[in-house]
Amino acid sequence: MFLVQREIPSAPSSIAYFMGCAGQGKGIAVDVHLDDIDWFVEQAKQKGVEISYIIDTHIHADHLSGGKALSQMTGAQYMLHASAEADFSFVALEGQQVINAGNVGVKILHTPGHTMDSICLLVTDNSRAANPWFLLSQHTLFVGSVGRPDLKGQEEKMAGLLYHSIHDQLLNLPDHIEILPGAKSGSVCGAGLSAKPMSTIGFEKLNNPMLTLSKTDFISQVLANLPPYPENMSNIVRSNVAA
Questions:
Q1: CATH number of the domain that residue 72 is part of
Q2: What is the pLDDT of residue 11?
Q3: Domain contains 240
Q4: What is the pLDDT of residues 24-82, one digit of tens each?
Q5: Is residue 211 part of a domain?
Q6: Could you give the number of structural domains in the chain?
Q7: Residue 149 within any structural domain of the chain
Q8: CB count in 10 Å sphere of residue 153
Q9: In a domain, 234, yes or no
Q10: CA-to-CA dists, residue 220 to 7, 111, 117, 214, 216, angstroms
Q11: Domain of 79?
């Protein structure tokens, strides 16, 4: 399989992904920014693959999504979790669903907390092994931190959901699973993010200060350290859900 971790030039703290199976010519674009569409098209051309699937791991509040536009350009399926509230049609994803792109299998983990529609992607390279290899943890679990739960209000409820998504799903994965997040230091999507955009489940269990807290303390801590809201957040969200 191939995997490219893309730090967006216009928003260096944000990370998008392009992955897939070159042997069978299938690619998956994840969390595409609107001003980064041409890069994904060029990557697909260089690798000799078609972009088969485009996934936004939630309705973003910090950048304009290019997912729908890239889908219209390439004919790829544009996917969001079924709970996403949008004014346009998309392919609805469900938790535990598996998407196959050649030898690459992507299992959808519904992880509400950052938003209600947040998902993580557990990825297996079936040409190597049947065991999952890495997790695109996006805005649920960061290296050294966790996602913010307050973008649409109900902060305490959402922080509680975030705690359970992390502890009941992500931390039950094997320690060797690599973590590739959707942002790094400098992002407004969480506080205390590392500048290193990769880790493992095992390392985060040992060293991420948010993961050793009780649920009550987790909620208190995450709400006490919220960064400023993303600039122009209301307009960004409105554009990302518009038909």
A1: 3.60.15.10
A2: 86
A3: no
A4: 999 999 999 999 999 999 999 999 999 999 999 999 999 999 999 999 999 999 999 99
A5: yes
A6: 1
A7: yes
A8: 8
A9: no
A10: 31, 20, 23, 10, 6
A11: 2-228
- Distance between the two ends of the chain, CA-based, in angstroms? 34
Contact 212, 202 (CB under 8 A): no
Using the Cα atoms of residue 169, residue 170, residue 173 and residue 175 in order, give the sign of their dihedral: negative
Quickly list DSSP for 136-205: EEETTEETTEE----BTB-HHHHHHHHHHHHHHTGGGS-TT-EEEESB-TT-SSSSS--SS--EEHHHHH
Per the CB < 8 A criterion, the answer to whether 201 and 176 are in contact is: yes
pTM: 0.97
Q: How far apart are CA 78 and CA 62, in angstroms?
A: 19
Residue found by looking up tokens 């196959």 in the block: 100
Residue 133's CB is within 10 A of a number of other CB atoms, namely 18
Task: Identify any residues that bridge with 124 across adjacent strands, giving them in sequence order.
Answer: 105
Query: Which tokens sit at 62?
Result: 């910090």
